[in-house]
Design goal:
The complex is a heterodimer of chains A (262) and B (259). By secondary structure, chain A is an alpha/beta fold. Helix content of chain A is 34%, strand content 26%. Chain B contains ten helices and no strands. The chains are: A alpha/beta (262), B mainly alpha (259). The interface between A and B is medium-sized, with 27 and 25 residues.
């Protein structure tokens, strides 16, 4: 499989009034095309900084990010982001359909409309196009944000704690929705989360980060197969064993660190 | 009183004022010769608006000057507000100037404007623009301060450039604030226009009608009718713009949900 994303020696230091703060340091990893990689780390470890540097929103202090071989310098053209806070990421003055069309500015009108319709159908919101985001429930709003990212047909989909602001039931639904659409559309996804179970349930691989400044502590393969189920998968031996391992790594109890690359 | 027409709650204050005015005038609490009662002023008002070609011309002149001034004020203040609100260096450089100019009353500039622009409509439009600028400018500017950084980040992450963020995110976000500014500015622009007509004389408008009625013939019916009309127009414009705001910017009204 070809390499979609290559992060090499990435580090970022914020210069604040009360001194410098190094959020991430010496991060290196790759994501292959078609993979869903979860990045899990303790809160405040710099996960959001990592995501923002990959998205080109923050210029890293050190190291490089390459997207399908091209060095990222500024916002890449074929990358989409889904943020945690859907209520602040969707534009309240636009209808749901217009929100989904927002990134498709360069395309012809008919193509924009068609893509938005398809993307909304993919997330089960075919009927909601003319509504406004604030007329929808939280979970539905996050579906809109996901549809918007899908309609853009990005080479890489970045997700920043996408399911952290919805209730548990909705969260399971959205997780399964993500697994379904990435399978249907063959999207490469990098998902940042602080939720261990979520990282194992969703990921083909799980990258475990250390406390700030974040470095990669472990790069674990997840052998749960393509078809996953909220009840049986979460009860499986592999899942339970992996989540315990990730939890141990996050607490720093594991004395012998896993090799970073297989 | 039984059989009295029902008054909507929002108009109680207004109707009350007219009632007190009527009584004060009828009981000689104030000289009825100057303060003519509403029962006389309102018929005169209707007569002026519907049957007096001279007054109609004046009314059109005042209203068109007001609307023109508002349009120019929007065209100047909205881009300026977007610039000041989004480029800190520019804001830093010109805020002192803005804060110096803003407190200067438009009326104080009348002599200067008369000498510069003459007694035609240019003077009142220019000064009305000057008065109407500030609420729109400040509302646009402060709207940008309140813009959600995640909206900007979302747009940028989808490859939207600086200008795109300004026109596709900042401007729609600021639109309801701008309309509030226009609402405040309407009364200011009309007030300034009428003041210029009153003080400068030459320019056609309801201010001039009031001036002539008041000084020449002591026609207080017309003076008061013109004054009341100005109030009614302001009230109507405000109500209309408020309705527009509710219809066009339903998304910006406070609402529940996750925030």
């Amino acid at each position: 499989m070809t390499t979609m994303l290559e992060v090499d020696g990435l580090g970022h230091t914020y210069q604040g009034k009360d001194g410098a703060h190094t959020a991430i340091d010496g991060l290196s990893f790759t994501v292959r095309a078609g993979e869903l990689v979860c990045v899990v780390g303790p809160s405040g470890c710099g996960k959001s900084t990592l995501l923002r540097t990959i998205a080109g929103l923050v210029r890293p202090s050190r190291g490089t990010v390459s997207l399908h071989g091209n060095r990222v310098d500024g916002v890449p053209a074929d990358l989409a982001v889904v943020f945690q806070d859907y209520s602040r990421s969707l534009f309240p003055w636009l209808t749901v359909a217009r929100n989904v069309e927002f990134p498709l500015r360069g395309l012809a009108k008919a193509e924009r409309v068609a893509r938005a319709r398809d993307a909304l159908a993919a997330v089960g919101l075919d009927q909601a196009g003319r509504k406004y985001p604030w007329q929808l429930s939280g979970g539905m709003q996050q579906r809109v944000a996901i549809a918007r990212a899908l309609a853009y047909r990005p080479a890489l989909l970045l997700m920043d704690e996408p399911f952290a602001s919805v209730d548990a039931q909705t969260r399971f639904e959205l997780e399964d929705l993500l697994l379904r659409v990435r399978r249907e559309q063959d999207t490469t996804v990098l998902l940042v989360t602080h939720d261990i179970d979520e990282s194992v349930y969703l990921g083909d691989r799980v990258l475990v980060l250390s406390k700030s400044p974040a470095t990669v502590v472990a790069d674990l393969d997840v052998h749960l197969g393509g078809a996953r189920d909220q009840i049986t998968t979460r009860a499986s031996e592999e899942f339970v064993e992996l989540r315990a391992r990730v939890a141990g790594l996050l607490q720093g109890k594991q004395a012998t660190r896993q090799p970073v690359h297989k | 009183m039984s059989g009295a027409p029902r008054v909507p709650a929002s108009l109680v204050g207004l109707v009350g004022l007219f009632a007190i005015w009527e009584v004060a005038s009828r009981t000689d609490l104030v000289p009825a010769y100057y303060l003519r009662p509403p029962s006389v002023v309102f018929p005169r008002l209707l007569e002026l608006v519907f049957a007096d070609a001279n007054f109609q011309r004046a009314l059109v002149a005042t209203l068109s000057a007001t609307v023109l001034a508002l349009v120019i004020a929007v065209l100047v203040a909205v881009p300026a507000g977007l610039l000041l609100g989004s480029v800190p260096a520019v804001r830093h450089g010109v805020m002192t100037l803005v804060e110096f100019l803003r407190p200067i009353p438009s009326v104080a500039l009348i002599p200067l404007a008369l000498l510069t622009f003459g007694t035609g409509p240019d003077t009142k439009v220019t000064l009305a623009v000057y008065g109407a600028l500030w609420p729109i400018l400040f509302n646009t500017m402060y709207a940008l301060d309140e813009i959600d950084p995640l909206h900007v980040e979302t747009a940028r992450a989808f490859g939207t450039g600086r200008l795109g963020v300004l026109t596709r995110v900042a401007l729609p976000h600021a639109a309801p604030f701008v309309l509030t500014g226009i609402r405040l500015s309407f009364a200011i622009a009309m007030g300034v226009a009428v003041s210029v007509e009153l003080l400068a004389g030459g320019s056609v408008g309801i201010g001039q009608v009031v001036l002539e009625a008041g000084s020449g013939g002591f026609d207080m019916d017309t003076v008061l009718a013109g004054t009341v009309l100005a109030g009614l127009i302001g009230y109507g414009a405000n109500a209309g713009l408020e309705l527009l705001q509710r219809k066009a910017f339903a998304w910006s009204t406070p609402r529940g949900g996750a925030r």
